[in-house]
Write a structure and sequence with these properties.
The complex is a heterodimer of chains A (630) and B (86).
Chain A lengths: L3 H37 L1 H12 E6 L6 E2 L5 E14 L8 H8 L3 H8 L5 E5 L4 H10 L4 E10 L7 H4 L11 H5 L1 H4 L4 E6 L11 E4 L7 E2 L4 H18 L3 E7 L6 E7 L18 H4 L9 H11 L7 E3 L4 E4 L2 E4 L6 E3 H6 L3 H11 L1 H10 L26 H8 L8 H12 L3 E2 L14 E2 L3 H14 L17 E10 L5 E14 L6 E8 L7 H19 L9 H5 L5 H9 L10 H11 L2 E5 L3 E6 L11 E7 L1
Parallel strand pairs in A: 2-8, 20-22
Antiparallel strand pairs in A: 1-6, 2-3, 3-4, 3-5, 6-7, 9-10, 9-19, 11-14, 12-13, 15-16, 17-18, 18-19, 21-22
Helix pairs in contact in A: 3-4, 3-5, 9-18, 11-13, 11-14, 11-17, 13-15
Chain B lengths: L1 H58 L2 H12 L13
Classes of the chains: A alpha+beta (630), B mainly alpha (86).
Chain lengths: 630, 86
């Protein structure tokens, strides 16, 4: 007989065993899963958790500031809002109001967002007012990001030097391009904690601090740059010329104090100008220097020791045939010494001298003066000019190059060459980045030669010289005019298109500045002496006192006939007392005397304050008090 | 009796410490948010200074000063012979 309890016990035991087995299996699976999560997938899961709890984003650093030699800001970046969006999240019904807030056509906005996914810029570098309007709409998916925008406070005056920066923050022209690596900032990365809703919590840590770009100081003096730009613009307006350039150098160290071109462009709105208006003509455009080349021909002759200062050349009374080519002089002359050749700007005299010293000697000297080579300035697009090898120089070429035809230079090259004449024969590489280290110069002409050439150049701006209009009252200028026909596309010269040039330095005895003025296709006159020289004079007259080089009175009569500006006269006519502000002490006394008042002055320099005010009325013989300030 | 008092004190202390912890935590978040707002303010002021610096550079540009001096004060650039040696 079977035992029924025994059978039931077995069933219970099996059930228990089954349950235990199931639990053991479950625990084993849990254990395996735990090992899988904690060991095998540990790194990946930790990373995913970190992504959910932390958010890391990059911060763009601003570009470095560009300053002039006195620390004035020439270029700076500031943060401006840009509007972007996750375009697939924008509700279609909000597009018209968004387009209105962004001030762009609805069709343009639709083109940017429809049938697209992910992040897209809607409008970059917008005004704060636009950003505020967009934020007020609170449209899903639309968000504001801050970007750095570059501003050039001096606008067109420094446009060609500085260039501009594209919307992605990289320099595209000028210094902004050539020094892009230096100016670029290093972006940073910041880590912030997020709450359960995914919003950033306050605080956070820098994984990598952003580093703003390095500052850059230029040799440019913004006051001189402004003076040069204004004088060039006015000169071109008077001459109805096509364009022009001015370069101002310090001959003692090669520092470029100003480099202005016309037509200018505003780098803050560079896209509104044609690309050919962006180029810095002072370094990219070549021109035939014309007679401004003669001082270098004469210098080469003196250096050869075959020619002395009192050597004389017969200038063929204005017409001289070389091979099948006839050279003409504008001012026919007979016998001229070397000074006469410069002062009277004789092509024939220069040509005869060049032919006597030979192509190789002249070519070697012109090369050492920097012609036919880039100056190495930190600006892109510099032209080397044209100086053909001496093997290609026949008699005609040698004669032509002597007076600046068949050779091409840039305004900067010419300024650098004149710097050598104004710096006792020592050549400094022109530089636009200010450096604390002194410029290393090299002697390329003897001091005696440059002194002799300087005297010739002073004669060229004397009463009988072609450059007499370049001389501001109270100074001596050493300079040379140049007028050259422009080459056309057919390999010959255009009879109606000229380049007018004046190059020189002042004060002649101890040069503070070298100025080169190049005017392209002047219409009123074609001559360097009539077109470029007055611009040189206007720049020198304002710049030299600014640099502390004061004029020497040559004759008292000149001082006596100085008048105050016409604007001041106008003001006085309508005022009872008269406007004394801005006058020198001498002028203030003259004006007070004319009006019948006694004058009491304080200080020296220029009148900055007066009592009573210009509009007050006073009886004759009353006293006016003025305060002058250096 | 003594045991109950001891247990009660321990539980009360734990409760008070927990409450203090919660209060400190809230204070920390509040202070952190305040510091964040201040930091934002500093950055905003710094940005404002940058803009003002640029605006100053723009307003003080030589060409503008020259035009203002001419139009408002009737001044002209001095001619060389108007400049006296001190």
């Amino acid at each position: 007989m079977k035992n029924p309890y025994n059978k039931q016990d077995i069933h219970v035991r099996r059930r228990i065993e089954l349950i235990i087995g199931g639990m053991a299996l479950g625990l084993s699976l849990l254990l395996i899963r735990a090992v899988d999560l904690h060991v095998l997938q540990s790194d990946e899961l930790k990373e995913r958790a970190s992504h959910q709890h932390f958010h890391q984003y990059s911060v763009v650093a601003p570009r470095g500031v560009i300053r002039d030699r006195h620390g004035r800001i020439l270029s700076k970046s500031i943060e401006v809002p840009s509007i972007g969006a996750l375009v697939d999240e924008i509700p279609k019904k909000d597009l018209p109001s968004l387009a209105k807030a962004l001030e762009i056509p609805l069709a343009t906005l639709k083109h940017k967002v429809e049938n697209r996914k992910g992040f897209r810029w809607l409008a970059r570098q917008v005004s704060p007012a636009i950003a505020k309007h967009v934020a007020a709409l609170n449209i899903p998916g639309v968000r504001q990001e801050n970007e750095w925008r570059r501003y050039h406070p001096l606008g067109p005056e420094t446009g060609h030097i500085l260039g501009f920066v594209g919307i992605d923050g990289h320099g595209l022209e000028g210094i902004e391009r050539s020094m892009d690596q230096h100016l670029q900032g290093l972006p940073g990365t910041r880590l912030v904690q997020r709450d359960a809703r995914g919003q950033s919590l306050p605080g956070g840590i820098w994984l990598q601090e952003p580093h703003p770009g390095k500052e850059l100081t230029l040799t440019i003096d913004s006051n001189i740059q402004s003076i040069a730009y204004a004088a060039l613009t006015e000169g071109i307006r008077k001459q109805q010329a096509k364009g022009g350039s001015v370069v101002i150098l310090n001959p003692k160290n090669g520092d470029i104090l100003a480099m202005a071109n016309w037509p200018g462009f505003n780098p803050n709105r560079f896209s509104h100008y044609r690309p050919n208006q962006w180029r810095n003509r002072a370094i990219t455009d070549m021109f035939e220097p014309g007679s401004t080349m003669k001082p270098f021909t004469i210098a080469s002759a003196i250096e050869s020791q075959d020619w002395q200062l009192n050597s004389r050349v017969f200038c063929e009374n204005g017409s001289f045939k070389v091979a099948d080519y006839t050279i003409h002089d504008d001012h026919p002359e007979g016998w001229l010494d070397l000074t006469g050749i410069i002062a009277r700007s004789s092509n024939i005299g220069a040509a005869k001298i060049a032919m006597s010293i030979g192509a190789r000697k002249l070519h070697g000297d012109l090369s050492s003066l920097g012609f036919g080579q880039r100056t190495g300035i930190h600006l892109g697009g510099e032209s080397p000019g044209i100086l053909t090898p001496p093997e290609q120089w026949g008699l005609v070429e040698t004669a032509n190059i002597a007076f600046g035809q068949g050779i091409a230079t840039t305004p900067l090259q010419l300024a650098a060459a004149f710097s050598i004449l104004g710096n006792h024969g020592i050549k400094h590489q022109p530089r636009i980045i200010l450096s604390k280290e002194p410029s290393q110069g090299s002697q390329v002409l003897s001091s005696q030669t440059t002194q002799a050439i300087t005297q010739m150049l002073i004669a060229a701006t004397g009463d009988d010289g072609t450059g007499k209009r370049a001389v501001p009252a109270g100074y001596n200028v050493a300079g040379k005019t140049g007028t050259a026909q422009k080459a056309n596309n057919h390999g010959s010269y255009d009879k109606n298109k000229f380049t007018a040039v004046f190059a020189g330095f002042a004060p002649a005895e101890s040069p503070e500045i070298v100025i080169v003025v190049v005017i392209d296709e002047p219409q009123k006159s074609i001559y360097g002496g009539a077109v470029a020289a007055p611009i040189f004079r206007d720049i020198a007259a304002t710049t030299l006192p600014y640099l502390g080089s004061l004029p020497e009175p040559k004759d008292l009569a000149t001082w006596q006939v100085q008048h105050v500006s016409s604007a001041s006269h106008k003001t006085r006519e309508s005022d009872a007392v008269g406007h004394f502000i801005g006058l020198s002490l001498r002028q203030a006394y003259q004006q007070a005397d004319q009006l019948g008042y006694a004058l009491r002055s304080h200080g020296s320099g220029w009148v900055t304050r007066q009592s009573p005010s210009p509009r007050a009325t006073l009886s004759k013989g009353s006293e006016i008090e003025v305060w002058l300030d250096e | 009796m003594n045991a109950r008092l001891i247990y009660g004190s321990v539980l009360l202390s734990i409760g008070m410490l927990a409450a203090a912890q919660v209060w400190l935590s809230h204070l920390r978040i509040e202070l952190s948010q305040h510091a964040y707002v201040l930091q934002q303010g500093i950055e905003k002021q710094h940005d404002g200074m940058q803009v003002l610096g640029l605006e100053y550079a723009s307003l003080a540009r030589p060409n503008r000063l020259r035009q203002l001096a001419h139009k408002k004060l009737g001044m002209q650039a001095p001619k060389p012979m108007q400049v006296l040696r001190p």
